[in-house]
Amino acid sequence: DCIFCKIAAGEVPSTKVYENEMAYAFEDLNPMMPVHTLVVPKKHYRNVADELPADELAALFEAVRAVAALKGVDESGFRIISNAGANAQQTVDHLHIHVLGGAPMNAGDPSRS
Ligand code: 5GP
Ligand code: ZN
Q1: How far is CA 102 from CA 1, 40, 80, 93, 110, in A?
Q2: In whole angstroms, what is the distance from residue 35 CA to residue 80 CA?
Q3: Can you name the residues that pair with 49 across neighbouring β-strands?
Q4: Helical spans, DSSP H, in 28-113
Q5: Is 43 helix (H, G, I), strand (E, B) or coil?
Q6: Which of 5, 7, 32, 44 has the maximal Cβ count within 10 Å?
Q7: Which residues are identified as catalytic?
Q8: Averaged pLDDT, groups of 10, the chain, 113 residues long
Q9: Is 15 helix (H, G, I), strand (E, B) or coil?
């Protein structure tokens, strides 16, 4: 009963950016930056504190690289953020990596300003 499991499975609509065998990337519903894409493993993990098999980790970061290139921020620069747990204000308990870019960012966390 997890929203990102359903999105990754195509059971809940999303704006897909990229997909590989083990990871799925889609536009954030409430973008904080001109580029704000979420990358998730297709299998459910709570956050990066969970142990992921090497092939799933590799697929996750292959998807991050693909998103950066597809969104045109691989050269201009981008930031990845993965909130884990309550103090980080993780609101969806399915591991996700925010890919943020398209404008200059300060040294802090642009998704929490
Ligand atoms: P967190 O705060 O857990 O790091 O990030 C959760 C992110 O998921 C938020 O940026 C929020 O806008 C996004 N989000 C939550 N529910 C949905 C949804 O149903 N669809 C999409 N596309 N994004 C969502
Ligand atoms: Zn899930």
Answers
A1: 33, 21, 13, 26, 12
A2: 11
A3: none
A4: 54-70
A5: coil
A6: 7
A7: 96
A8: 97 98 98 98 98 98 98 97 97 98 84 58
A9: coil
Give, rounded to a whole angstrom, the gap between the first and last alpha carbons of the chain: 30
CB distance 3 to ligand 1 below 6 Å: yes
Residue 92 CA: distances (Å) to CA of 24, 46, 66, 70, 76: 15, 9, 23, 25, 29
Strands (E), the chain: 16-19, 23-27, 35-41, 78-81, 97-101
Q: What is the pLDDT of residues 62-78, one digit of tens each?
A: 999 999 999 999 999 99
For 71, other C-beta atoms within 10 Å of its C-beta total 21
Give Cα 102 distance to the centre of its chain.
16
Residue 67 in contact with residue 47, Cβ under 8 Å? no
CA of 84 to the centre of ligand 2 (A): 14
